Fold:
Amino acid sequence: MTVHLRTIAAMSDDAKKPASDRVQLSLEQVAQLLPGTGEIMKSVGECWWKCAYAARGGNWPLAAYFARRVRSLQRNLAVVRPKYADDLAAFEAEHLAPVLSACESADRARFDPAFDAAVEKANDLHVKWAHAYIRWTLPPEPPTDLDLGS
Structure:
């Protein structure tokens, strides 16, 4: 029996097989497994929602975490959907950066207008890319799965 030290669990016989005995995926098959724009943007919306309410609750480290998470998700989107790359880079520089800066300085007076401007620009980009039917709005209630207060 082989033991994997990180998990301290016995490895199955399949896990012990050399990689050459496993199924090899083509690049096209791997690409099909990547999340689509809808899945990525659903995650962006969830993080953006939590960012806003963490800031409203005074939990600036959590708000900054979710702003960085949005940045990361959108960078990934630029890789898997390169047609959006230029707009996403501009959005990051012009809209995400001010939100993140306000979070890092715990400045609600700067956060609110930066957040609102970013939402407006995101909705403008939905129109630009023929998705005018997608209009993001901040839900009226905070998420309940995290303590968003300070």
Q: What stands out?
A: Residues 50 and 143 are 7 Å apart (CA to CA). The helical segments are 13-16, 27-33, 37-56, 60-80, 85-104, 108-128.
